[in-house]
Fold this sequence. Notes:
Elements: E1 4-5, E2 11-13, E3 20-22, H1 24-34, E4 39-41, E5 50-53, E6 58-61, E7 75-80, E8 86-91
Parallel strand pairs: 1-3, 4-6
Antiparallel strand pairs: 2-3, 5-6, 7-8
Amino acid sequence: MWSDPEDINNWAVSPRGAGWLFGGGVTAEFNHVNGLSLIARAHQLIQEGYKYMFDEALVTVWSAPNYCYRCGNMASILTIKEDGEKIFTEYGAAEENERDKGMQTRKMAMPYFV
């Protein structure tokens, strides 16, 4: 979904320039018509990693911690079990250069032409 949820009831023009803003009434109608209880979506930064809206009829999940190395946001993964239980795994960004700690630096080879 390129459109974004907003605390409105119907539709509104999106300031992103693509898609629309939609509210709780639109979400309830969509879920009812399609026999759904939850819309799970992404592609919108959520500082806490995930956010429910409209009486938990919609959830936005964001899985890129510290987006663009500057947003300071958390991230999460949503797991929905067979019985419908929803489990969020939340995580923050790894320390910068964490993967390189303890690695030996590359030794320079002798130049080909001496």
